[in-house]
Amino acid sequence: MSISESPTRVEPASFRDPGNQVFYAGSEVLRGLDPRAAEQWRALAATDFFPALLAEGKVCGTEPVDPSRVPAGVTWAAVLRHERIPFVSHPYEWSFSMVRDAALLHLEILRTALAAGFTTKDGSAYNLQWRGAAPVFIDVGSFEPLRDGEPWAGYRQFCQTLLYPLLLTAHLGLDFRPWLRAQVDGIEPEQMRRLFTGPRRLHRGVPTHVHLHGAMQARNARSSTTDVRAQLRAAGYTRELALATVRGVERLVRRLDRPPAASPWADYQRNCGYSGADRAAKERFVELALTTAGSPRLVLDLGANDGRYARIAACHADYVVAVEQDPDVVDTLYRTLRTEHDRRILPLVMDLADPSPGGGWRGVERAGFGARARADVVLALAVVHHLALGRNVPLPAVLDWLLDAVAPGGRLVVEFVHPDDPMARRLLDNKPDGLFPDYRREAFEALLTARCRVERRQDLPSGTRTLYQVAVGG
Description:
The chain is of the alpha/beta class.
């Protein structure tokens, strides 16, 4: 099927810039440009810095295509085709180091663009995605020629969605994810000012980028953008000053750090109660399930812990998304994958009992996890008992949720931890007696057979855990 014959779907997050819009035609990711944006694209493509960023993989792959090939009824002055990111994630699903690296890439790209007479009109964390443990800038439509005397238009977005989350965690030890998840535009300066009072006002980066920024924003609230630009030009604001500002922010971000804290889940393989025989049997079962699945495009490892099984999956799949609730465990895994230059495993922070919902305009601007998570193979190893016993989610609902994450024709590899297993008993110790009468292996197997086809089943040598490989109808 050609592009012109493919059904078209507009990207719900691509509506705030009327000059260009992202949409999908079949498997193609396209960006339509109006005449002004098309002219800016041609100027951008003719520079030396932009092709270099493409070659280095710092900007998503982009090439022009014939505008006449776009679906009927859509008219653009130019059309670009982008590489398809394997899995779209949101900043409130990233670890601290991931946000930091994304911010540094954004600043590096901006600094490079400024030196060549260009700027980026946006500064949002949502303009970055991931190829495994490597960030990539995706908003090619954000580049525009620089006009002297103009500030970086994306500074406020950068602060609210990238810098402020880093300041919260690095200086105060607060989790930034609930803030970003609750507000699609990020954390407001006024919210930050109320947190950084007294001696905290003097923490690195806070006086300039929180208090001064907030004061200037309040002072200019009644001024038009044109007035502010005129004031900056009159004050002699130049490209060199803009570059110096970006370099200063870059130095600040590099100095912000918070090493992952120790976590019992960081060494899950030794703390989970498995014997060596259990681990070996489990690894063989998972390996065979992945081999049986052929060459899966996408694998979801739900409850990934230290990433042991995500690494096994990466040997057989194109891409693996490793989801874990503990942010320190995810940050440790990310730092290791980054050192290894891994491009096939994306670690994400998420509570599986409270997965990311849809957000932003009409609740679809940022797609919820359920809308994005449709994988060829889903690994749910040592997850069911945490949801059913630890979070009181009914067993049928747990299984339905897992099966919803499997693409038609895909497979689920799921582990059932028996009630007499030490980990299950630990969860039950704090629960009233008789609260989970249906949490039994027989009941779980009945649910499985009613919903899908069980291809393999294996009891681990310990006798208190059972693995299942099931096929989901396509």
